[in-house]
Amino acid sequence: MSRTGRRPGDSGARRAILTAARSAFAANGFHAATIRAIASDAGVDPALVHHYFGSKEDLFAESIALPFRPADAAGIIMQHGLERAGEGAVRLFMSAWESQPTRDALLALLRGALTTEHGADALREFVGTALLVRIAAAMDIEDAEVRVALAAAHLVGVAVLRYVVGIEPLRAATVEELVVLVGPRLQSYFDG
Amino acid sequence: MSRTGRRPGDSGARRAILTAARSAFAANGFHAATIRAIASDAGVDPALVHHYFGSKEDLFAESIALPFRPADAAGIIMQHGLERAGEGAVRLFMSAWESQPTRDALLALLRGALTTEHGADALREFVGTALLVRIAAAMDIEDAEVRVALAAAHLVGVAVLRYVVGIEPLRAATVEELVVLVGPRLQSYFDG
């Protein structure tokens, strides 16, 4: 995550930008929201938004406290090779959900997607374009897009039953237990 | 689903009971909601609720237009044996979500679970007790509860990305394509 230019005293402007960004993405979706409108809403110059947060995609990621840059996801998942990408995907996904601020932001996103069409647009456009399409492109396998989407679906379902619904065996499981159980099923999608 | 005693003219009372049931489950959870309170809210005798809908569990299932009785789920999933339960689970789950009234009710349930604690209770208590625990009990495999919960998680995630978020390759897939792709991954949970 880009932290360039962060100084004590910046935090008010940063916070105002992140708040404006969350509203704009929820109200308009990811593609239709503009840095210009977010900057105006936060009372800062658009250049400052780019200076603090880089691209719109990185701004979205920071607005939900994602603990990695979207552009880095594929590399992190495959850091031990495609043959261990199942395990890598579980670990990366859980690293986001196990952090309380990120989890709260992800739950708010999901609530938004269930409540308004633009909320669904935001999640689809961000998850689809910034994450899944890119991860699929980095994997040299047939039908990569649908396989990566199904692996993502499995992880999303684990999050819903573990953190939202609270189904007992998933609520109680450790991350390592989930890696051992879910990893091989994701791997079987990536093995083709 | 029990249709005993249904006659023309019953539909007003039936509808009132289902509406009262939906509110009661959302407001109190599944266990804490009582047939007595639902009947009182609907302005009918509790005996009529039992007469129309059978058990509280069947009432819950009808209140979300579930196209099967919860007690029948395990049998339906394993109608071609445990070795084809993966395929059976995808088909049964998709039969519910592909029906528009059921899908709307399931999305309302999920929204309730994300919005209030009692909404989450209702979903957990119903899905956990009426469905997952029973399906796990019917499967003669080790760690059945966590494996069935993870298979359910995979399916829930497919529903979220297909129907809520609208991720393209999952939105466009046919049920048969999902059976072919997802079935084997669920099967590998059931194979232990």
Task: Name the features.
globular, Tetracycline Repressor, domain 2, Arc Repressor Mutant, subunit A, mainly alpha, 192 residues
Description:
- The structure is a homodimer of 192-residue chains.
- The first copy, chain A, has 192 residues and is an all-alpha fold.
- Chain A folds into two domains: 1-63, Homeodomain-like (Arc Repressor Mutant, subunit A, Orthogonal Bundle), CATH 1.10.10.60; 65-192, Tetracycline Repressor, domain 2.
- The first copy, chain A, has helices at 11-28, 35-42, 46-53, 56-63, 73-77, 85-97, 100-115, 117-138, 144-165, 168-172, 175-190.
- The two termini of chain A are 32 Å apart.
- The A-B interface holds A 107, 110-111, 113-115, 120, 123-124, 127-128, 132, 145-147, 149-150, 152-158, 160-162, 164-170, 173, 177, 181-182, 184-185, 188-189 and B 107, 110-111, 113-115, 120, 123-124, 127-128, 132, 145-147, 149-150, 152-162, 164-170, 173, 177, 181-182, 184-185, 188-189.
Relative helix content of chain A: over 70%
Series of H and E elements of chain A:
HHHHHHHHHHH
Most extensive interface: A-B, 42 and 43 residues
Number of strands of chain A: 0
Distance between the termini of chain A: 32 Å
CATH topology of the largest domain in chain A: Tetracycline Repressor, domain 2
Give the tally of structural domains of chain A.
Answer: 2
Query: Per CATH, which architecture of the largest domain in chain A?
Result: Orthogonal Bundle
- Please identify the top-level CATH class of the largest domain in chain A: Mainly Alpha
Strand content of chain A: under 5%
Give the overall shape of chain A: globular
Uncertain stretches of 5 or more adjacent residues of chain A = 1-5
What oligomeric state do the depicted chains represent? Answer: homodimer
**Sheet with the most strands of chain A?**
none
